[in-house]
Amino acid sequence: MRYKSMSKEGKKIVLHFHPMGGPEGSENALKTKSYPEWNLLKGFVIAGPDRKFYPAEAKCVESTVEVWSDQVPNPVAVRYAWATWPEGNLVWNIGNLPASPFRTDDWPLFEDAPFDGRSKESQEWRDRKLKLQNEARKTAQERRANEARKTIETLSGKKK
Questions:
Q1: Could you tell me if 91 and 113 lie in one domain?
Q2: Is the pLDDT higher at 95 or at 65?
Q3: What does residue 32 show for φ and ψ, rounded to 5 degrees?
Q4: β-bridge pairing 57-61 and 97-98
Q5: Do 94 and 118 lie in a common domain?
Q6: Residues paired with 68 in a beta bridge
Q7: Cβ(99)–Cβ(1) under 8 Å?
Q8: pTM of the model as a whole
């Protein structure tokens, strides 16, 4: 499966993919790896014009994926599994092949930044990178804590 394009529908971004060959009717089938009955996807982040990414809700809708976040009222970009150790569960229906990481934006990455250490631009990139790394670390810690709480509630039979 390969990302093809995106379209904006209100406060959501709809992702479209290149079809793959397979049995009749399965060429565009997307699903989640872990919990197909829930149809909830992990690993998506979404950004507005400010280029600040937030964790996003996402779900499969036939051959597309809808992505949104209450924190981003005017979304312009999505990334999937765009991390060092991504946690994604989007798979292609044919052979449960995992979706490759992708992004809809063409914004400069930190690797493209001018890190000569002397210019103001270099310092601004470095400061922004550190800020985003700290925010990502905090978000990951909060996510792990929430998942641990849910697991404990489920195992103890006290699910609310």
A1: no
A2: 65
A3: -95, 150
A4: unpaired
A5: no
A6: 57
A7: yes
A8: 0.64
pLDDT exceeds 80 at position 115: no
What single-letter amino acid sits at 23? Answer: P
**Exposed e or buried b per residue across 65-95, where buried means at least 16 C-beta atoms within 10 angstroms of its C-beta:** bbbbbeebeebbbbbbbbeeeeebbbbbbee
What SS3 state is found at 78?
strand
Q: Are residues 100 and 133 in the same domain?
A: no
Q: 26, 143, 150: which is closest to 86 by C-alpha?
A: 143
Alpha carbon distance 36, 52 (integer Å): 30
Q: Residue 156 to residues 12, 100, 145, 147, 159: CA-CA distances in angstroms?
A: 36, 36, 16, 14, 8
Domain membership of residue 141 as a residue range: 108-160
- Collapsing DSSP to helix, strand or coil, 111 comes out as helix
What percent of the chain has pLDDT above 70?
76
Tokens of 37: 């009955």
Closest CA to 47 of 134, 135, 121: 135
Q: Indicate the DSSP class of residue 150.
A: H
Cα Rg of the chain, angstroms: 18
Q: Match 């600040």 to its residue by tokens.
A: 52
Out of 63, 90, 105, a domain closes at 105
